[in-house]
Amino acid sequence: MHKVQLIIKLLLQLGIIIVITYIGTEIQKIFHLPLAGSIVGLFLFYLLLQFKIVPLT
């Protein structure tokens, strides 16, 4: 059972990263930013970590 919980946690974390990257790509498209969408998503993820919206653990 412990291994299944670990896999579910890993998939959830991966899903969060994919969603944030997708949101960054959409922000880049809407505002026609000269940065890649993945970079915008990375910056968005950084902000979420700094404001403790997404926990580090």
TrEMBL record:
Pfam families: LrgA. Keywords: Cell membrane, Membrane, Transmembrane, Transmembrane helix. It is found in: Cell membrane. The chain crosses the membrane at residues 7-24, 30-49. It comes from the Bacteria. The keyword Disulfide bond does not apply. InterPro entries: LrgA/CidA (IPR005538). Its main location: membrane. The keyword Transmembrane helix applies. It is a multi-pass membrane protein. GO terms for cellular component: plasma membrane. This is CidA/LrgA family protein.
